[in-house]
Structure formats: C-alpha cells, structure tokens
Amino acid sequence: MAPAIVHFLVGASIFLLVVSPFAIRYRVSPVALLWIIAIGGIWGLGPDIHHIAPIYEAELRAFHDSPWADLFAFHYTLDRPAVQARYNETVFGALVGFLGAVSAFTLADVLERGLPFGR
Q1: Which range is least confidently modeled, 27-31, 48-52, 74-78, 100-104?
Q2: Distance between CA atoms of residues 21 and 17, nearest Å
Q3: Concatenated DSSP letters for 7-57?
Q4: Residue 3 burial (CB count, 10 A)
Q5: Distance CA 8, CA 110 (A)
Q6: Which of 48, 95, 109, 117 is least enclosed, having the fewest CB within 10 Å?
Q7: 73: left (phi over 0), alpha (psi -120 to 50) or beta
Q8: d(CA 117, CA 29)
Q9: pLDDT tens-digit profile of 59-88?
C-alpha cells in the first residue's frame, strides 16, 4: 500500500488540474482553491475508508482491493507491489506532481488575469 500522503497528493493534483479551467474562468477565491485541493486529496483517499468505517468493513476492503478503486486517483494502481516497493520514489513523485499541478494552475491564472502586482 502506498503511503496516505501519496494518495492525497495524487488525488489533489488530478482534481486541481481538472478543475483549473473552471476555477480560472470563474475567478475562484484562494480559500475556495484550498477547498478544491482538500476535496481532491480526500477523493484520492476514498477507498481507504475501510480503515475507519464501523460498518461494512469487509465490503469496503473488497472494494479497496479491486481495480474499481482506480476511479479514486489510481488508488489500486498505487497500491500494487511494484509501486509499494519504491516508497521514497512514490512520495517524491507525488510531491513533484503536486508542485507541477500547482505551478500549472498558477501559470494559467497569471496568464488569464495578468500579473498580481503593478507594472
């Protein structure tokens, strides 16, 4: 199983990249942007709900261990043994991917609105 931070960052990155065109077009506030990142991260952690669920634990674990969990930010793929064996690389890759998504959003925002400081 990949670390929870990897699932969170991958989910947040994907959600941020998908929502970016809408967020930039409709000028989303910075607070709303933080909510977008948090919701995306929680979406990436979705299949791990079986760790804290008081009911349906067996069914939730079965979903976590099925390829259907890939609907939640490639959760099943990130939990494969080949990825699991590379702990440091997955954390570093998730951090780089998240920084890339934030950079892409920031660049698109600056190009759309102009520079945040005076000329």
Answers
A1: 27-31
A2: 8
A3: HHHHHHHHHHHHHHHHHHHTT--HHHHHHHHHHHHHHHHGGGGGGT-SS-H
A4: 15
A5: 26
A6: 117
A7: left
A8: 17
A9: 999 999 999 999 999 999 999 999 989 999
